[in-house]
Amino acid sequence: MTVVPVYVMEEHHEAFYVWSQSVRDGVLAPVGNTLIHVDEHSDMSLPRFRRPLGSIAGRSDLLDFTYNELDIGNFIWPAIYQGVFNRVCWVRLSHKSGAAWKSMNICAKNPARTEFITGSSLAGTPYENAPDAVRMEFCPVTTRDKLRSDQPAALDIDLDYFYSNPYPDYGDRSIEITRGAYEQFQSDRYHFLKIAPGSDVTAEIRDGRCFLRFNQYPAEPARESATEIELRIAGRIRDLAEWLRAAALVPRLVTVCRSVHSGYTPRTFAAFIESGLLDALHGVFAIRAIPFDEYATCPTEACPTEA
Q1: Less Cβ crowding at N or C end of the chain, within 10 Å?
Q2: What is the pLDDT of residue 137?
């Protein structure tokens, strides 16, 4: 029986490390894979790098690239550009449009290959004959749509698919700063942290110490009890498991992202979602759960993949 490795990570850009290293380990084919991305968010923002993908060396350098060049919203396109995925199914509870496949292209905008452009067609643009252009297929789907599974797949699941905060809820929403930085922030009407979209930063002094405060909005009153929420979460987990079972899908690997530090998965329900999801996956195919840190920091010859 094939045992599927399930890598459990804290934040979603760590999936890029798993995919890249799994290619190196021979668990995932270097080209021609489908990514089944189960997430409330598409995570398909375009990255802008300080150094190119081709500069990545060994495991430690790959880890450094993951943490210093990627974020939780731009880690999928780099894997597509490298050829690992030529098809992406974005699974969401609902989409504005129905399930329909469309072709997309990506290529570098600059000679250093650190900036990118995408589009359904590159014809008529300065990049139409780009030698590095990569074509992929993309489709937004729900569990009411039939899963296309005619090539090897990697399953990628964010816990916020089952229950998501509408806005990120950070646990620690303040950073201590110097008095000079505080005064500069207060006096500059155009301070970049004041005008940056979504930053929502204010400054304050507490007990003689200066802080920047982020996203300090009053909590919305609960509209459901914890029991009602857990019942809804459990139903969504069952629904996803049944969908995967009906597709007879046995992925080469699974990545599970908690998204608690980034504030998208409510921390009060994260453990409940994770436990229920792993149990449900085990009922669909044999799995071995592997903590991301165990996989990312071990010597190559000792790294856990399949049992």
Answers
A1: N
A2: 96
Largest separation between any pair of C-alpha atoms in the chain: 65
Tokens of 204: 């304050």
Instruction: Report how far residue 205's alpha carbon sits from residue 142's, in angstroms, rounded to the nearest whole number.
Output: 48
Buried b / exposed e along 158-175 (16+ C-beta atoms within 10 A): bbbbbbbbeebbeeebee
Query: Which of 215-240 are b and which e, b meaning 16 or more Cβ less than 10 Å from the residue's Cβ?
Result: eeeeeeeeeeeeeebbeebeebbebb
| Residues 6+ positions from 187 with CB-CB distance below 8 Å | none
pLDDT at 220: 76
Which pLDDT score is estimated for 19? 98
Angle at the Cα of 246 from the Cα atoms of 278 and 250, rounded to 5 degrees: 55
From 17, 34, 82, 8, select the one nearest 252 (Cα to Cα). 34
Q: Bridge partners of 205?
A: 210
Q: Which residue has the tokens 């990628």?
A: 156
- What pTM was computed for the model? 0.92
Dihedral of alpha carbons 123, 74, 51, 254, sign: negative
More confident of the two residues 45 and 199:
45
Could you tell me the two tokens for 227? 């029991």
At 170, phi and psi to the nearest 5? -85, 140
Count of other CB atoms within 10 angstroms of residue 180: 9
Q: For residue 295, what are the contacts with CB-CB under 8 A and spacing of at least 6? A: 7, 18, 21, 303, 304
